[in-house]
Task: inverse folding
């Protein structure tokens, strides 16, 4: 495990902002989800060593969270959501400066800055002043400064903000490729569930200062083995009536589309659905095992408009 | 050879398995890059004015040093005789430290105040407005590194009218002085004096301007506050003297005057009143400590993640 946290609690004065957090992050792409005020930023701050925990402990690589702060940050990359450029620099100076601040030697920092800027698609613009960059270019530059020192753990906060559709696709591809580097972990914090679903394998959902759920997405989204989603060509009402009459349990009907879900019992077989509906002249267009989306998993664990108004 | 699984390797990405122990400390990187940025981001007119000022200032320093050390030789050349004929030989034979005081102490007090207003005010305010604190504190940089780096930037700016002209005069003196041993015997302590003055100037001016710079997102507000504080201290001192009468502690609250007093003592190497010197030094120390503490309070690394 790259990062292990046990019973970590953090408070701002009398307010507890992280409550007994337990977290184990594998070397893969992790999606961090939660409503505003859930404690995501505080968790990142605690890992970066910017906040002292009240209790609990954590380890990142060989470093103790809360004591080896500067050393930890040398191995962590952070791409903030908001613009954070140092005025007066051009891209190559900026990225190499960030690498040097993270402990790289001057020449090596410049060499890597060139490579990383080409990687994020800013190779041709690397000598331009940062003040002249567009929103999309700034976003790429933020990624470049975060990965220039080859971090073991990379935090990405809303990385696709302000990008056009093409730029967004490129950014997500790049994130996915970074996530595939061996022994490296990315933590993607985004409100766009599709981005999280596309780029990450592991999910951490936070709400009300606690981790509500964590695990591999494929496991969390795996539905019940006996639940199927059915799309018929026409007359969904009649199809539901036929199935109900034959002891099939219909659980959900889509309000606008001819789609509904069927729950099968032990002795029922999906093939029987075909036979029954064809016998009344209804064509089945799609029959798929029902999987949850990341959004559904999120909604299951997060109380919208819950106790603290989140 | 390690297995390459991600497509990213085909696009030039390489893992970095080397050391992450930088050769240069973070505060040094921050200080030098701050100065480079100030110069780089200042307008063409401002840069030209500063360059002209320095060319003229350094030319005057060099010319006056050459003339006073070699005036006898210059007097032998017909075409330059008029230049030195009007000079008073008594003024040319004064102690070396007198010339350093003339060229360093007074010009630096005026110039450094100007530099603080125009450039020093931008040191942290620009970082704040550009959200650059996020960049610094998400890297291996502590609050101490950041603040010390900014003090270094102030030190580099103030050195332009303290350490640099003083070094110029000393090097020229060693080269051109007809009596090198005599020159050395009366100037060996000058580097110590100049460095001490540079330190005092950088710490006092740096603490005040960095505090105001850390308090605002807009550098002009920091500059205005700096000027305001200078006048406020002057008026407050006058007001307190009116109420309580003269006291060295109250006089020392006019920190501009305190700087002149300490500078005079360093270059004269003579203390006229220990009591006055102690109180004025105490006031300057108080300003450095209070403003230094306030700077640390203003800069919060925890705001790095919003």
Result:
């Amino acid at each position: 495990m790259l990062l292990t946290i046990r019973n970590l609690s953090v408070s701002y004065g009398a307010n507890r902002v992280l409550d007994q957090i337990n977290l184990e992050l594998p070397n893969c792409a992790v999606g961090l989800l939660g409503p505003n005020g859930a404690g995501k930023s505080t968790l990142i701050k605690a890992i970066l060593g910017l906040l002292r925990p009240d209790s609990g402990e954590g380890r990142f690589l060989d470093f103790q969270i809360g004591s080896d702060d500067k050393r930890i940050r040398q191995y962590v990359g952070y791409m903030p959501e908001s613009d954070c450029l140092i005025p007066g620099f051009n891209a190559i100076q900026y990225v190499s400066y960030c690498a040097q601040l993270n402990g790289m030697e001057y020449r090596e920092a410049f060499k890597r800055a060139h490579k990383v800027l080409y990687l994020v698609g800013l190779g041709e613009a690397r000598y331009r002043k940062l003040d002249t960059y567009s929103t999309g270019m700034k976003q790429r530059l933020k990624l470049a400064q975060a990965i220039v020192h080859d971090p073991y753990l990379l935090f990405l906060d809303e990385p696709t903000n302000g990008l056009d559709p093409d730029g967004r696709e490129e950014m997500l591809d790049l994130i996915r490729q970074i996530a595939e580097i061996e022994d490296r972990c990315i933590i993607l914090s985004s409100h766009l569930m599709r981005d999280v679903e596309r780029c990450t394998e592991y999910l951490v959902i936070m709400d009300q200062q606690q981790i509500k759920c964590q695990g591999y997405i494929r496991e969390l989204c795996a539905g019940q083995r006996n639940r199927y989603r059915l799309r018929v060509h026409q007359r969904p009402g009649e199809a539901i009536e036929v199935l109900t009459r034959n002891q099939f349990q219909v659980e959900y009907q889509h309000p606008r589309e001819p789609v509904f879900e069927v729950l099968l019992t032990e002795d029922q077989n999906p093939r029987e659905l075909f036979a029954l509906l064809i016998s009344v002249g209804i064509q089945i267009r799609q029959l798929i095992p029902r999987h949850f989306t990341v959004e559904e998993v999120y909604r299951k664990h997060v109380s919208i408009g819950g106790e603290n108004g989140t | 050879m390690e297995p390459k699984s991600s497509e990213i390797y085909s696009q030039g990405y390489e893992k970095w398995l080397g050391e992450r122990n930088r050769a240069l400390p973070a505060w040094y990187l921050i200080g030098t890059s701050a100065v480079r940025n100030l110069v780089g981001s200042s307008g063409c007119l401002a840069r030209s004015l500063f360059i002209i000022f320095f060319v003229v200032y350094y030319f005057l320093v060099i010319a006056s040093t050459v003339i006073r050390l070699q005036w006898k030789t210059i007097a032998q050349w017909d075409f330059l005789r008029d230049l030195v004929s009007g000079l008073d030989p008594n003024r040319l034979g004064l102690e070396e430290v007198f010339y350093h005081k003339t060229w360093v102490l007074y010009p630096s007090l005026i110039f450094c105040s100007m530099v603080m207003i125009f450039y020093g005010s931008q040191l942290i305010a620009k970082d704040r407005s550009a959200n650059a604190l996020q960049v610094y504190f998400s890297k291996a940089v502590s609050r101490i590194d950041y603040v010390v780096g900014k003090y270094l930037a102030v030190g580099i700016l103030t050195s332009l009218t303290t350490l640099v002209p003083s070094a110029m005069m000393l090097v020229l003196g060693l080269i051109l002085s007809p009596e090198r041993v005599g020159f050395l015997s009366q100037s060996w302590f000058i580097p110590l004096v100049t460095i001490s003055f540079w330190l005092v100037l950088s710490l006092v001016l740096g603490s005040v301007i960095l505090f105001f710079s850390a308090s605002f997102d807009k550098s002009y507000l920091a500059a205005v506050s700096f000027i305001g504080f200078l006048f406020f201290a002057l008026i407050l001192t006058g007001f307190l003297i009116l109420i309580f009468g003269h006291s060295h502690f109250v006089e020392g609250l006019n920190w501009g005057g305190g700087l002149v007093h300490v500078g005079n003592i360093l270059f004269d190497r003579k203390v006229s009143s220990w009591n006055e010197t102690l109180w004025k030094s105490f006031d300057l120390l108080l300003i450095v400590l209070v403003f230094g503490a306030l700077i640390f309070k203003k800069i919060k690394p925890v705001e790095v993640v919003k």
Observations:
- Chain B has one domain: 24-304.
